Amino acid sequence: TMAHSKALLVLENFIGGRFIPCSSYIDSYNPSTGDVYCKVPDSGKEEVEAAVKAAKAAFPIWSSKSPLERSQILNKLADLIEHDLEAFAQAESKDQGKTITFARTVDIPRAAYNFRFFASSILHHTTECTEMATVGCVHYTFRTPVGIGTKHSKVKPAEQGKRYDGCVPFFPSGVPPGVVNVVFGTGSKAGEALVCHPDVPLISFTGSTLTAQRITEKSAPHCKRLSLELGGKNPAIIFDDADLTQCIPTTVRSSFANQGEICLCTSRIFVQRGIYSEFLKRFVAEAKKWKVGNPSDPTVDVGALISKEHLEKVKNYVKKAQAEGARVLCGEGVDSLALPTGNQKGYFMLPTVIAEIKDESCCMQEEIFGPVTCVVAFDTEEEVIERANNVKYGLAATVWSSNVGRVHRVAQRLQSGLVWTNCWLVRDLNLPFGGMKASGIGREGAKDSYEFFTEVKTITIKH
């Protein structure tokens, strides 16, 4: 996917089965060193037009393949990803700043698993059939593919359009040319051209709520189908009967995994007053154990944040909290960060825990998307449900309690698309994934994805 030029990687767009150079490029920085390591195409209308044209040409070929043929190709893709897992992990770690351990154990294996899951589920979909004997008619439903879709991804916080997941090896797997096209660029140029293109009826977007509003406005005149996976301000609710030996390490992980740059990360922790002091002491002690440093070091827990601009934004949230009178118990501005020689200019930050902060604070209301979490006390079940729901987002939540009745009651009343109880980030792709309120529109999963990417048609036959 890349050519070497003056020792810098130069990425090219992948259109119609070929790598196509671009007339202009954007510098891409290695977040762990602060140095430019790559040039990325700055695509616009021309490149988007070429990609849409290639996809239109490939659509009849791909859509006429049987489910079994498509299943075999997706499984072959998974094989190829697994074969080159280490190379993909290294590239992902270098590009995103995430630890090599996280890329090796989560990102790349998950990509292969996703292909395998849908390779299997495509073989098991059924359609409906009804009979009206009185008029001699049979009705059945038929699923037809919507058409060209765009998966528009953007690194949420930085608004830079810097997200490139790399071209997985499509050809050896048997994917026909033009079925998958990769166009790099900024949201304002490449993204806008895709969203406004009349021949793209479907948009799947992962990113900020602000960008999603723009996509909704621009796509509305074309009546496009949208799936929007947006921000979160995810609460963890910890009752006094929680098993803290499980709860504390899991909540540290849910707060700081991938530098807190996961839309499902916990950023508001509500702890029942009876265990508040003990929880805080143990939680901070555990957070301080997380090692920050060179992402390629397998012993490191926290890598670099995605960009210099985003690091400043996250640090500013901590400063605002301090200015409001909140207490920073560990991390930013409290503990010193020692970095290896080669990473002095990287975008690193210590896991940061904030306490004694008001629910109205911007740190409790806005998505920070970094290694920062706020811990506050609560008294009653009714009170904590109201406070947890008192934000514009509703993506994910976690509930910790050994009372099974309480677990069900609270989970059902939280305004959240996903609720984990006594665990975090346990996913089953059969089930719907997505958010409420400003966290998005639509769901993904076996049944939900099938319905999103196809149109249902009712056919009536009189005999």
From TrEMBL:
Q: What SUPFAM superfamilies does the entry give? A: ALDH-like (SSF53720)
Q: Which GO terms describe its biological process?
A: retinoic acid metabolic process
> Record keywords: Iron included?
no
Segments forming domain Aldehyde dehydrogenase: 24-148, 173-459
Q: Which UniProt keywords apply?
A: NAD, Oxidoreductase
An example Gene Ontology molecular-function term: retinal dehydrogenase (NAD+) activity
Which residues participate directly in catalysis?
229
> Would you say which domain of life the source belongs to?
Eukaryota
Keyword Zinc annotated: no
Return the PROSITE patterns for the record: ALDEHYDE_DEHYDR_CYS, ALDEHYDE_DEHYDR_GLU
Pfam families reported in the protein's UniProt record = Aldedh
InterPro entries according to UniProt = Ald_DH/histidinol_DH, Ald_DH_C, Ald_DH_CS_CYS, Ald_DH_CS_GLU, Ald_DH_N, Aldehyde_DH_dom
Name the family.
Belongs to the aldehyde dehydrogenase family.
Q: Can you name this protein? A: AL8A1 dehydrogenase
Q: Which organism is it from?
A: Todus mexicanus (Puerto Rican tody)
